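Schema walkthrough. Field components (list of strings):
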Amino acid sequence: MLRQIEGSRAVAETVARCRPEVVAAYPISPQTHIVERLSELVDSGGLGGCRYLLVESEFGALSACIGGSAAGARTYTATASQGLLFMAEALPNASGLQLPIVMTVANRAIGAPINIWNDHSDALSQRDSGWLQLFASSNQEAADLHVQAFALAERVSLPVMVCMDGFVLTHAMEEIDVPEQEAVDAFLPPFRPRQWLDPDHPVTIGAMVGPEAFTEVKCLMVQRQRRALDAVAAVGEEFRAAFGRDSGGLLRPYRTDDAEVVLVVMGSAWGTAADAVDALRVDGVRAGVLGVTCYRPWPAEALHDALSGVPRAVVVNRAVGVGSGGTLGQDVRVSAPDGTEVCEVVMGLGGRPVTRAALADLVCDVLDGWEPVGVLDFRDADHTVVARELVREEAPS
Amino acid sequence: MKLEVRIHGRGGQGVVTAAELLSLAAFDQGLHAQALPSFGSERTGAPVVSFCRIAGRPIRAHDPVSHPDVVVVQDPTLLHDGAILTGLTPEGLVVVNTGRSPDQLVHAGLALAPGQCAVCLPATELSREALGRPLPNTALVGAVVALTHVVELHALQAAIRERFGHAPDEVLAANLRLASDAYVLVREQERHRA
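Field assembly_structure (string):
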């Protein structure tokens, strides 16, 4: 049933319908509404025997999830920004120990300077943590991805981050069909852990591994991630069959078939870009959008196929690898077909809006022969301010 | 069909709630709607902006409203910010929470283009009387509903019941009354102008 509801609330209610047994929470903007709503639901008895743990930090939240998951419970937490960084030590433990924890990341910039608004620096900084990372293009998809995430995590026995743009999605009130309890129950079987800590049948989870086997363990992790790609696509297909909605999967192409320029985006910029593309098409500009839903594991082959025959791809980076280049752009460059010219821009850092007008201008400029400056072009920056500051810094004191 | 609204106010005035109420009312009426906040520093008193889009078809974009049909000003001290009318459509409306008249606002420097129009409502006074607190948002949303002819008053009242369902009965009743009083006041002003 469609309801006009805040994104965070829809996600919390969807998570509740996935029947988590342990929820560990530490509030941080813009994620707080999700765990607040979950705490209300637990408090009112809506989650059966779910244990809601109010912990002392994000590190504590993920550590509690690791313990809960290792003991065989379906576990969930949510965070953002510096909170995710504070979990960084524990993130590879969750993935290395193959614990199918699901976590919402309400994407927010990382400081300094401190900034509470949306970009993708937090999740992308943890791209190598061994977690699967799925990016929601809308609030409907954010809700749906949580149902998929639990199914996926438990199928491949790996943790999953569901990334949704902070404020832009978490605090937007829109029409959302929160998956119904019966449908979620039919889609998501009860959690059957591959192994768990049980005093009656003792096992060791997390033993030290020396040089004689460490490489092989890492090699296995890589293979498991690669295999998880098929599972991401399969779960998306199964979700479509069960719920009649196109959510999840690897990529989200829109009008790319005959496009002369394709914008490659992640997150909520997809809908904005799709509207920009429709407007450009009315003016005879053959533009398209390729949304990256599954960022980790990286869908190299699917991206290669999606861009085949596309002369130009423009990657909209919402996070920067300071000292190297665009984080998303580097992956796209490696995977794009030979015939596709890839250029990158940085836009929408720290809450600067990614607008339809700016995306349409970008497409038109690229068609007019405009080229980004260097590896990275800060497309929406005030370059005068930057240049003035550089001059000041270089002046002899 | 499309209606885009931008609401300017200060933290604590219900700027985000106003956009949500409008979106709820539109949804209750079978339209598609989106309420988006643009948080400032999340402090009481700091300038805050929110947006509401209403359309006849599903809404995909998540960028801020750049060309509002209506700008709502919940705190008249924000009128000194020259950017308050930025992007207002050529026939756009400015709804201001003030006891002054549109002419007085124009004399004081409100730079309206020829097709644009200001509407004034003493929403803070109305809310003080009804609620005992200066919470101008429900009255202003009532005014927007009266002026734009997109959403019906009863849909707004259903939205207020949904949003303030947890509030004490007298608070809910006062908000319902505020919205309808503002609606009637603004409709009367419209009739006088016509």
